[in-house]
Specification:
By secondary structure, the chain is mainly α. It has one domain (16-93). Helix content is 70%, strand content 0%. It is built from 4 helices and no strands. Helix 2 (23-36) runs antiparallel to helix 3 (40-59) and helix 2 packs across helix 4. The radius of gyration is 21 Å and the shape is elongated.
């Protein structure tokens, strides 16, 4: 290993107390899932971006793998709750359909 890289790694301040769950991992999931419904092409680009973010935050020592997995799970749970609440409120807000006389 070149001495310049040894210096770089020996002087890097890794985050020993990385945040759990990683919102760096969660927000790209939310963005990719939101865009996926509108455009598969743009959604694919954002999913690739999400995977790159996951790898980079672990590689740079900002998060552990468990933090990234936790961020992904957190985002999926949050989206599931938001979608179910939105569906419930939309059902309540919809005007009642008139019944035809039998």
């Amino acid at each position: 290993m070149p001495s310049s890289l040894v210096w770089l790694y020996s002087h890097h301040d890794y985050n020993l107390y990385a945040a759990f769950p990683s919102l760096h991992a969660g927000f790209p999931v939310v963005a990719a899932a939101a865009v996926w419904r509108q455009s598969r092409k743009a959604g694919t680009v954002l999913w690739v971006w999400a995977v790159i973010v996951w790898v980079v935050v672990v590689y740079l020592g900002e998060h552990y793998v468990a933090d990234v997995i936790g961020g992904i799970v957190y985002a999926v749970i949050a989206m599931t709750i938001a979608r179910s609440l939105a569906a419930r409120f939309l059902r309540r807000a919809a005007p009642p359909t008139p019944r035809s006389p039998a």
